[in-house]
Amino acid sequence: MHYPLFIKLHYLLLIFLIGNMANLSGQSPKPHSPVKPVKKEAKHFEYSTKIDLIIQKDLKKNSAKLNPPLSDTAFLKRIYLDTIGRIPTYEESLSFLDNKSPNKRRSLIDKLLDSEGYVSHQYTFWADLLRITTTGNINTGGDAYYYAKWIKEAIRSNMPYDKIVKSMLLAEGYPWENGATGYYLRDPGMELDNASNTIQAFLGTQLVCAQCHDHPFEKWTQEEYYGMASHTYGVNSRMPIKENQKLNSTRKILQQTTNLKKNISLKGTVSNFTRPLSYGVNRTNKKLPKPTDYATNNKKKKDFVVPHTIFGKNTHTTQDDKDTRVESYSRWLTSKENPLFAKVIANRIWAKFFGIGIIKEVDDIREDTKPSNTELLNYITRLMKDNDFDLKTFQRILLNTKVYQRKSTTNEQDHTKPYLFTGPILRRMTAEQIWDSCLTMVVPNLDNRQGLHFTRAHPSQKTLSIVEGLPPNELAEKFIAINKAESKYYTKRKYIRSELLLLDKEQDIEKIKALRKQEKNAKKEMQVTIYGEQSKQKYYKDKKGEWKGLGNNLVRASESPSPMYPGNFIEVFGQSDRKIIDNNSKKANVNQILMRLNGHMFNQIIYAKTGLGGKMRTIQDLNELLDTLFLGVLVRKPTEAERKKLLPLLKENRGKSQFDIFWALLNTNQFIFIS
Amino acid sequence: MGRFHLLLLHLPIGLIFANVIIELLISKNRTINREKLLGNLLWTWNISTVLAALTGVLLGNTGGYDDNLLENHQYTGIALAVISWVTSILHFVFMNKKTNVWLNAYRTALALSFLLTFIVGHLGGTLTHGESFLFPDEEIEEANQFTTSPTIIGKSNLPPSVYQSKIKPIFKANCLKCHGPSKQKGDYRIDNKTIAIQGGDSGRVAIIPGNAADSELVKRLLKDRPEKKAMPPKEKKALTKAQIDLIIKWINDGAKWADETIASSPKKTVVAVDKLYNITKQDIDKLSFIRKANGIVEATKWDIGGLMINLKYVPQNKFEPILEQLLPLADKIVWLDLSRKQLSAEQVKLFKNFKNLVRLHLSETNLVNDDLSELLELKKIEYLNLNHTKVTKNGLIYLKPLKHLKKIYLWDK
Amino acid sequence: MRNFNKRDEISRRRFISNSAKACLGVSLLPCLQNNSLIAAVSESGKQPKARNVIHLYMAGGMSHIDTFDPKPGTEAQGPVETIKTNADGILIGEYLPLMSKHMDKVAIIRSLNSSQGAHAQGAYFMKTGYIKRGTITHPGMGSWLNKLSGRTNSSIPGNIRINGGNNAPGGAGFFEEKFGPLTIGNPSEGLANSKRNKNIPVKQFETRLNLSEWIDTSFHKEYKYKEVRAYSDAYTEALTLMKSEDLNAFDITKEPKEIKAAYGPSKLGQGCLLARRLIEHDVRYVEVNYGGWDTHNDNFNRIEVQCEALDTALSTLLLDLERRGMLDETLVVVSTEFGRSPEISSDLGRNHHPKVFSCLLAGGGVQGGQVYGASDEIGNEVAENSVSVNDFNATIGYALGLPLEEIVYSPSGRPFTVGNKGKPVTAIF
Fold first, then answer.
1. Burial of A265 (0-12, 13-18, 19+ CB in 10 A)
2. Which of A55, A614, C2, C34 is the most buried (most CB within 10 A)?
3. Interface pTM (ipTM) of the complex?
């Protein structure tokens, strides 16, 4: 009866061994599977034209006109940011600008959609939508290591949108077996919240209020919400670890020898080491009872909700079968007949490119919501369906429209009126785009640089190998040994930290150093006791020297753990905290400015010997130097006025002025806006 | 199942009309064929009537309808079903016996059924569409015309007193019972200006001054009466067109409460007109030189009243003349912050003019013990901050006569 | 309960000697006794007079039963004992021994209740007074204060968030960004990047800035968006800040070691110390965040650790503010998004419980040593004087003298008020 878990354990061990073999040899990370290219069909351009026609019609009706056409340089900046999430390098810009082909914009779009950078940029879109949290603890929905990898792979293989959503809703098992389980693991023990998020993310409707009471401004009742939520209520984000015989006998031994139940610290050690086994997605027969009013606190839980959907066809399922209720729900949700599923994603992507949705509130669609252009919304929804939720093709169509390739609207939009799509609106880059664009100027071959966080094996594999490798009696002894080592370390650390607090940062530098070293050694000692003398983990070393001297953290935002801690560059510029769907911010704050004025990042860029800084040093001609800096940072050539003012400065004192100009360009506002 | 009622009920209505028409128009020559056709129609009719009645009972059980109305509708409906059978049977008998007695009996029953159909139909209509569906009264009819094209009336320059004289009485008579002091349905009350404007649970703005068309209040006043969101709700008396018109005008005029004007943007400083010291806006304006010097002037907002003046961040060079400039308003100042200032002997002597001071901050100043003797005139002072000064506890002896002084701070690093 | 207040008529000589004793009686900050003196004569005025706020926000949902609303003798109480405090009849959890000596300064509201049972939504509601919606972002109390009342010290921002992210709820909302909080990730490290790079002389720094502004001229002329203006404003603000004499307010290394130790080593303690320094320099609103309260499992061990940090930090903060004459004008608030359930789960944890929970208010005219409102006998529901989240926000607004009735319109023309129509709890002042 308990075999399945053990089979899974063996499977895990196998994976771990294979993973480790690769790791031990210190090789470079495995190259990705190739990015699946976008379908290159001529009819896509007809669709683009149709979109333009619909918009032209609407503009005519409102006696408005499209914005002026976009220059090649402005197009270049925008298309790079919208497809691969960073500005082009100096070289990439040149190769496009020098290209004389009349179809060069089309071919650039295709090239970018097929590049690795596309995966990186799309990942951020998904991570914000799905609140993917790779930092933190899996216990509270963090540590989504396998989930992040799964999403990236889905983007890379251009998995259709409906299939992605379905795979997540239907996921089961351990995360290392199926990364899509991360969808449920994001909200452990919070089935109702998970259900609200599902509805908000994929159907653009907010039901979270109805979780506790009837929706105050919409027609949804609490009962209707419960009917929706009951479909996935049985999906548990914990594995039945209590049925694991081996762990149980180990516990029994420990109870006899050390009175485990009273020994809180040892209990902690045991659960820390066995915890990874409890995180996985497991369908159960748990039924959702009818809502009891928050106020009445009715404890009788005999009445169960009948699953039903709030719009579209019903699922006609019951809570009795743990599988069919999830399956029928995932079919209903991702169906082409679902009135909102395709519409919401089409509108989201539109909003991403134009800075504003055809329905402004991309995930708060209500009964009385009016799209600013109904025909347009219906048309792109149809495109989404007709192309079978192929997001890449859909993006190709939008990016090739005339209206997209227009200047951003220069006057601020009136929030009280529907936006006429005369072109995109002015957008600030996202935090991730700013970070990635900065790195573009320093790190060569940026898109292919992988982050350590994701190339390393997941830490739980280490602890699981111990649990798996020993028979119960030895495992019991091991736990006792580990516990001793841990206690010793924590006592030492506590002492050291209290000492550190009393020391003066400036006067007692030596003492502080010594204490820090002591702490480090104590930690190492503990680790040796637990895992044995380990060959120092060999991180990937760049043999070609392409990235020599560039810190491990200088990888694209998608390759870094996220969300970043407060005060980090990406966080300061408004990265989503991944607590709420699409919670990123593009607002100004003083911390950002201080970071731009005095922070490490910009200094690193202008004084770097690689990337744009390196290029700058090799150029003799001052005119060319100016072009290079402007193109490399602002993705445009200097104007005549700029040339006239800046050239004399370079002539007078190039050594100083080139850095001043470089710095000044980085501190302009136009650098972080997409116009 | 019950939902089919809404579909089925139309069948018997159509059929009885057909019967009656045949009966009335072509009753002269009663041929066998015609009687057979009539018989078939009658039987279809009575079966459909029964089905409609059955589904009606099912639908009624699902709840959500006005109980009284529902009961009436149900009984008359069932009666109609029974009479429809009786009618059909009478017709059948007449076909066999062919006597006038049976014919008249049948016709009476048919007429009765016809009448009953109207009654049942009206009751049912009221049940689903609301009271005034079939016989709307005139005023509401007119109001409904608004809904299709909301008239936006420009400024009509109503007198400022219109709220007191006209609007308030309308609200009082029609709204206050549910949206007033005793009850706040939907978390909305119309007698409190803030809430009246902000709106309640719906999250929509109830009154947008100057824009009646987008104001939720107006939208609801103009809604079709049976609709859920219409106000007042269908059980209550509706507003007349004239009343609604007036409210629209009033909102378009800026929705002025009494004779005040609603600000279109937040005011930076709110000047509370204060009873004790009678602070006026002019007083605050007179002190604008302090703001220019990076100081703060505010009317205190609580019971103590008076002015709060903070000169802590006024640079020393700009500070020099300020204390003297304050003298004309010295009586009104209750809260004074002179921290970080170097005070000359002359300036210290000015303290006695600030007779109503309650709180005085003198931290990080150059004050010494003997200077405290200049504070004796400050009879109302409660709080004195002398942190980071040269004052020691020996100096506090000077302060003994100050009966209201509650807290003195003498902190130094 | 308030013996202290009865000494209205006291001779001037006695008050001086009494106050000296009062100083000696408090041995928390021994270093402070030598050269310092405070004198207290009688009760302070019974009116709110807060200028500034220090808001200690306990993220994750602080258990009310294990801290400020214990239920001794019931099953709900669990293993945490209760202790008496220096305020008559007020009991608190045993893990707050230092606070038990300062409850005379604090008013507990034990009947707070929220409608939001999830962290992000709950925190949003507490900090803004509005329920989170997809269509608008509401400003936090610090932004309201700065918008409606302005700064005292114009050279440093009037709204500062410690230990919190830039993207957390309670920011500028629909107000201009300049009213939103400046964030400090780590209080011990102060304000990151606030000093000019040493290798760049002032003159060169200015040259660079001028160049940058000049290159942007046509962009600024072309795009008159408020988002772009906000960046220009932020540059002005940042440069003023860099030059400010009060920049050292951000540097807690300037504090004596003993004071740093008295606040405790936690990020909350160090954050409170930084908050006090900032308030001393007249920052109007300082929010100090401290997480770790989401005790779904192992509640009782974890609450002990959490309380140790809170107990040390809060008691020292109150004492420190009082000694410097700042408590009168500084409202100290301790709040959280919701409480925790009276039921104890099989993992020895407590789950989210928005139906009733507690918060603390001190200083700024708040009458200490009192409890307002009550939960039922097991801390499950409100038993008397319900205080909604809106009331809670309105109370802070009231203490600061903000106009609660004044309507402020968002850029999209929607009307809002401080505290969202809540009724201030005036009884605690």
1. exposed
2. A55
3. 0.86
